[in-house]
Amino acid sequence: MNEARAAVGAMMGFYDRTTGRWEPERPWWQSGNALQALLDYMGRSGDTEYLWVLDHTVEIQRKVYMGGEFRSDSTDDTAWWALAMVRAYDLTGQGRYLDIARTGCEWIGQYWDATCGGGVWWDVPQRTYKNAISNELYLKLLASLHNRIPGDTTHLELALETWRWFDASGMVNADGLVNDGLRDCVNNGGETWTYNQGVILGALVELHRATGDDTLLAVARRIATATTTSDHLSPAGILTEPSEKAGADDDAPSFKGIFVRNLDELDRYLPDRPYRGYLARQAESLLAYAGDGSHRYGIHWAGPFDKADTARQASAVDLLTTASSSS
Predict the structure, then answer these.
(1) How far from 271 is each of 204, 274, 327, CA to CA, in Å?
(2) pTM recorded for the entire structure
(3) Domains in the chain: how many in total?
């Protein structure tokens, strides 16, 4: 865990105590994602040096938008924070974090309607786009809550409804990859961002844990294998975000970390650990080619180092955490 610990230390160099955010000028959801990366590291390593960051961040950030409790103008932003709260519950056992996650889930559910046969809207209150990431996150959140709330049936019923809708939506294309969303209620052929391939893996693991339905794992394997063998997403075997060469926007540097986090959840759940070698190869490349010599890492895991920021560093923490505890 030494490399992961050093990467966490570098990530904390971007943390602003006054605002309770990593680089306050960056997209808000990325602080929720960085918090998840930190919590995953603490859970795997047992290192609690930065446990104080959890309450400090939550108590400030839960109050900042749309009446609080991590509500935002997009359902995926709320879901990132809610899933971090699920991980906070897993780490600490404190039910108040699960309560926050449940509140976020209920808020997201208000934006489900019959357009395109179901699904939650990405943007609120405009309701112009039903996309993969919001619905994948909602599915993972529902199934995660069911698996942690004794006697729950409501979240499981909603999770099953969400999965049936997503599976029938056509967003998983003929190559086994997830496109970005729907246009006129059919697959829009949008980019196959790595995080869209990732979150669905973690969601299907949680839903399988709830139901025991092996068809869910078959779908997850198909998407994971399609991603890890894709010339587009894994050229020469190294995970590559589609926008890397063209100059990634503020959001895209977070995506690969989200993918490997969820791929690791699937890999650990499968008895044959089919993706362990792939994850190890990513970490080896990151350490050899993507760093600046100070435990900070850029977007290009095959190199060269471009620059350091919260999104790039949180992705590196995600990767090094999975690789450092792969046994």
Answers:
(1) 16, 8, 12
(2) 0.97
(3) 1
